[in-house]
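Supplementary Text 2. Reproducibility record for the structural model of the 218-residue chain.

All settings were left at their defaults, and a single model was retained for analysis rather than an ensemble. We include the record here because the model underlies the residue-level annotations in Supplementary Table 4.
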Amino acid sequence: MWGSSMPTIEQIRAARALLDWSQNDLAEEAGLSQTGIARIENGTNKPNSSTLAKIEAAFDRADVEFIGKSGVNKRISDIWVLRGKEGFKTFIYDVYTTAQKKEDAQICVSNVDERNFDKWQGPYREDYLSKMENLHKEKPFTFRILVKEGDEHHVAKYAAYRSLKEENFGHVPFYVYGTKTAIILFEEDDVVLHIIDNESIADAQRAAFNIAWTYAKR
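Retained model, structure tokens:
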């Protein structure tokens, strides 16, 4: 039996219809095969939780949410919540996709200890860093990171780093990319990301970041 948070076959079909997606569209967005999607929808293949999580994440990126075991809705809210390793994977590849699409991507990251990012990126860490580095060579973008003074663990070759004195360093990281602001709560056994998709808020956060960047140590 599928978990209560996972979409049913009927919801997958309904969500595709809501977005006017073909089975191939969903397969591409979820990183699956069209044949696999077809088998899921006609009931000949029971998907495992990992496959369903990929499908749910694809619809989530398209602002479609599932309600109970039968409802499908186009999300109106500008706020979405991700958690755990699957949520973190969705987040980092959303950053990559944003950098791909934006002509002048201005990505700002503050209050960062990149050891936490290493942990939660898990097996996708090298792939993500490689994709970002290659993209930066093809289509340079601005990526700036503020860390705590004395922290020399810098992993992003495509990023510029500056440091803040400990008294000015916050312990809740935030990421600003495109029109989105991600507030990241690292816990001992979990990570929760609150992502706000609002251009005005993103612009305000960038302005605050720019002030901190100006006074940070090179």
